[in-house]
Amino acid sequence: MIRDAEILSQLTDTIARFVRERLVPAEQHVAETDTIPEDIVADMKAMGLFGLSIPEQYGGLGLTMEEEVLVAFELGRTSPAFRSLMGTNNGIGAQGILIDGTEEQKQKYVPALATGEVIGAFCLTEPDVGSDSGAVKTRAQREGDHYILNGTKRYITNGPHAGLFTVMARTDPEIQGGGGVTAFIVEGDTPGISRGKADVKMGQKGAHTCDIIFDNCRVPAENIVGGKEGVGFKTAMKVLDRGRLHISAICVGVATRLIEDAVNFAAERKQFGKPIIEHQLIQAMLADSRAEMFAGRSMVLEAARSKDRGEKVSLDASCCKLFCSEMVGRVADRAVQIHGGAGYMADYAVERFYRDVRLFRIYEGTTQIQQIVIARELARQAAQS
């Protein structure tokens, strides 16, 4: 559903050049300091990267799903930290409001997300609630025209500096599972919110997460997403289709970068009197990686086009997330192997990417959750046939 191929080509070319000339040279600095330079953040805002998938009427670029994944293929060719900063504004930070929010809520909050003036975050995971996301324990109790939120959210991307949270909280303790969960829009400076220390992670330095604690946090009733109690879990699930396709596209982009780095290294590194790229076992690893990357790219594009046609893509989105997140892990492993001892050294990007990509198999639904989603949908389809 590409609306203007020439304009899209200009956009992807611009982003590819920005990645190549600005982001890739800054990767090591980000890894060492755990911070994205402010001038780069300013450039990302100026380019409209915080509003890629936000509709134009709210200040974004309004990319279709297919257009978004084509851009994500380019953004994936550098450290995931850069995408993580602006990704929540385009994805889980804004999509809940865009999908189920009232027009007043969209007008009030989304434009600031589109420009990057405000960083958004999505608060679903809790200390005892991960894959079983319908078991939310954070409470929201009605008190007049406000709700009082109490609970802790965990591993919240951009939590340390987010100015707006979409929070899933249980408004009806009598209803078990997702049916008693409501989505709230909570401004970051609301009294009763505190933030835990930034998490120290295996990889993805520069992408920050932390606990978000709600202690008698008063939120206006008008800040319920869509103004309706009890449908927050459904909102969360709607957001995940787009998010899973986006992450899948990022995995493809990272795999592309890893293959390029491995090919370049193999062409220069000599053993047994010739470049190692001429050795068949090295060629096999490169060939397998390229074939798997191409398969992932094709899957993501097909699912994105289906979504743009208005088709239900939950099954295909899970298939993409399952395959692409596992695929990029295999590609990263082969890239390290091709680099040999050098691949274990921090001097080479493959060492960092090897750690960075491990997270893709966990967040936005683990590999095992994708398997369950896929199998359940297949069983449902069989029962209807």
Describe this structure in words.
The chain is an alpha+beta fold and 385 residues long. It folds into 3 domains: 5-115, Butyryl-Coa Dehydrogenase, subunit A, domain 1 (Orthogonal Bundle), CATH 1.10.540; 120-230, Butyryl-CoA Dehydrogenase, subunit A, domain 2; 234-384, Butyryl-CoA Dehydrogenase, subunit A, domain 3 (Up-down Bundle). 51% of the residues lie in helices and 14% in strands. The protein has helices spanning 5-33, 38-46, 65-75, 80-90, 95-100, 103-115, 232-268, 280-308, 314-339, 349-356, 367-384, and strands spanning 120-123, 139-143, 146-157, 164-170, 181-187, 193-195, 209-220, 270-271, 274-275. The strands form 3 sheets. Strands 2-3-7-6 form a 4-stranded antiparallel beta sheet, with helices on one face. It has a 3-stranded mixed beta sheet with strand order 1-4-5. A hairpin with a 2-residue loop joins β2 (139-143) and β3 (146-157). α7 (232-268) packs antiparallel against α8 (280-308), α7 runs parallel beside α9 (314-339) and α9 (314-339) packs antiparallel against α11. It is globular and about 80 Å long. The chain starts with a helix and ends with a helix. The model has no long low-confidence stretch (mean pLDDT 95).
